[in-house]
Amino acid sequence: MTRRILVTGAAKGIGRAVMERALADGDEVVAVDRDPVPDPVGGSPRRLRTRRVDLARVAEITGLAEYLAEDVGGLDAVVHAAGVIVRRGSLDDVTEDDFDLQYAVNLRSAFFLVVRLRHLLGEGGSIVLFSSQGWWTGGLGGSAPYAATKAGVVALTRGLSRELAPRGIRVNAIAPGFVDTDMMHTHLDEADRDRLVAGVPLGRMADPAEIAASALSLTRPDASYLTGITLNASGGQLIY
Ligand SMILES: NC(=O)c1ccc[n+]([C@@H]2O[C@H](COP(=O)([O-])OP(=O)(O)OC[C@H]3O[C@@H](n4cnc5c(N)ncnc54)[C@H](O)[C@@H]3O)[C@@H](O)[C@H]2O)c1
Questions:
Q1: What is the rounded CA–CA span in Å between residue 7 and residue 5?
Q2: Atom 26 in ligand 1: which residue has the minimum CA distance?
Q3: How does pLDDT run across 90-112, given as a tens digit for each residue?
């Protein structure tokens, strides 16, 4: 059966890998991002719709829900990979705007996406939110506000999973460790990255496709008894 999946953050990185994998699996995909979503490898199939949405704005999330209701009709799964990190060298350099942006994109959007889209998901529907190992570590230098938003995602996942379980909708999160995307290269020099990756038992960063596969596995019908969990996808970096 073809499933209809909404993927956010699909312009690049992990969200793009989720879009590519879902298309390869035969799913129908609505791919959204603040930036234009480039065509997938091999061209754009009819099963793909793309849309530009700034998820930092709740009004745009409401507009997305209206579009999905009218043009798509319903959803089977949501993978909310859009996110943003702002690393600063000193605590004094963190601005109110830095804090608010990360809060809006990483945490507030997750809550309002679930709230606005839950009516489109029927029995068996599934939502995957994106946390980070930062939820546990508090961030590895210069990223405490980011880490706090990702801890918020874990709490949101637990709370919303209970709220939506009676409707047969599952809500889970995934907490990646170091993934080889632009986010791992922004404001982190090579020496810092090498030092961080040296602490990963698997000895490397994750490929975005590996995280995409794990995130999508949580949405599949055979994950039907999983809800409220945060999947630790850190290559053994943290085991808890
Ligand atoms: N890369 C890592 O090492 C890592 C580790 C842990 C968690 N994560 C999480 O995984 C998710 C994906 O990260 P990534 O590494 O692919 O990042 P990325 O920076 O490569 O891609 C993020 C995508 O989100 C989009 N986006 C940002 N703000 C948006 C907004 N306001 N509205 C709509 N789209 C917006 C960007 O345009 C971009 O396409 C994020 O939630 C991130 O916090 C990443």
A1: 6
A2: 82
A3: 999 999 999 999 999 999 999 99
The whole-model pTM stands at 0.98
176 lines ligand 1 (CB under 6 A): yes
Structural domains of the chain, count: 1
- Please indicate whether residue 146 is annotated as part of the active site: yes
Residues 6+ apart with CB under 8 A from 79: 5, 6, 7, 8, 15, 18, 22, 128, 215, 216, 219
State how far the Cα of 12 lies from the Cα of 181, in Å rounded to an integer. Answer: 8
Report if residue 199 sits inside a domain. Answer: no
Owning domain of residue 165: 4-178+208-231
Partnered with residue 33 across adjacent β-strands are 52
Contact 47, 23 (CB under 8 A): yes
